[in-house]
Write a structure and sequence with these properties.
This protein is of the alpha/beta class and 268 residues long. The chain has two domains: 163 residues, HUPs (Rossmann fold), CATH 3.40.50.620; 78 residues, Alpha-Beta Plaits (2-Layer Sandwich). The strands form two sheets. The protein has a four-stranded parallel sheet with strand order 3-2-1-4, with helices on both faces. The protein has a three-stranded mixed sheet with strand order 5-6-7, with helices on one face. It is globular. It starts with a helix and ends in a 12-residue tail after the last strand.
């Protein structure tokens, strides 16, 4: 481990140590898994709890992953059903959708946080550098949520490198944005649309494409994989079968984005 990363780890351990007890909003991603690990390492499992918001926009496989990891860490894990879908401001799916989603999440999980525990999230320094006015971060500030990774100066590669150093199997886990990000801005988010996307993505993952997104454009499904995987997808022997099965889900047309995946998480 290089000196810069070592110093960042020392800093986050100091930040967490000052809080004594931490409740992590846990999604199962690279960032929140590393935060959960380093919190347990610093404070002990008895002083850490994980809370996962279970929404229809979160794939079922990710909820199961959260259960598995918290069990491995020996950390108390609470799963709560979120109801952002009851908020019309969320459903209309504009630029502020993530803000209303985070507000709903924090309101829902707050009653489940044990006394003395500080709610924290896996937002990192790169999130702020790339998108300073990210709506979800606005909600974090309003609820006075701690962002230890961001405060300690961790960028995405730092988190992956540190995760690899400590032997976490999430170090190379593909980046995951909630499934609502597959619905273009201005199109209402519905559970039916989300389930169509989830089924299509699961199908591609089962065929070896670990990092994939399927955008929902009404009757059109647009498949995105990393640029370096496009040729593999186009030449995949079972691609025609995959397209047929995606159409059976309810899409009329299936397209592949030949420019590669958009990693911003924004709805395009």
């Amino acid at each position: 481990m290089d000196k810069d990363l070592s110093q960042k780890i020392e800093k986050i351990e100091s930040i967490l140590g000052n809080e004594k007890k931490i409740a992590v909003a846990y999604s199962g991603g690279v960032d929140s898994t590393f935060l959960l690990f380093i919190a347990e390492k610093t404070l002990g499992a008895e002083n850490v709890m994980a809370i996962t918001g279970n929404s229809f926009t979160i794939p079922g496989r990710e909820i199961e992953f959260c259960k598995k990891k918290t069990a491995e860490f020996g950390i108390k894990h609470i799963i709560v059903k979120t109801k952002e879908y009851l908020d019309e401001s969320y459903l209309k799916n504009d630029y502020l959708r993530c803000y209303f989603c985070k507000i709903a999440l924090f309101k829902t999980i707050r009653p489940y946080i044990s006394d003395g525990y500080k709610l924290s999230v896996g937002t990192n320094a790169e999130d702020e550098a790339n998108f300073k006015d990210r709506p979800g971060m606005k909600a974090e500030k309003e609820f006075n949520v701690l962002s230890p990774l961001k405060e300690a100066g961790f960028f995405k590669n730092d988190i992956r490198n540190a995760s690899k150093f400590f032997g976490l199997d999430t170090w190379d886990k593909p980046q995951m944005a909630c499934l609502a990000s597959r619905i273009p801005f201005g199109n209402i988010v519905t559970e039916e649309k989300i389930k169509m996307v989830e089924r299509a993505e699961d199908l591609l993952k089962q065929n070896g494409f670990g990092e994939v997104r399927v955008r929902h454009y009404g009757k059109l499904a647009k498949i995105e994989v990393p640029a370096e995987q496009i040729n593999n997808l186009m030449q995949y022997k079972s691609l025609s079968d995959i397209i047929l099965k995606i159409k059976e889900i309810g899409f009329k047309t299936v397209a592949v984005d030949i420019e590669g995946m958009n990693h911003s998480g924004l709805n395009l």
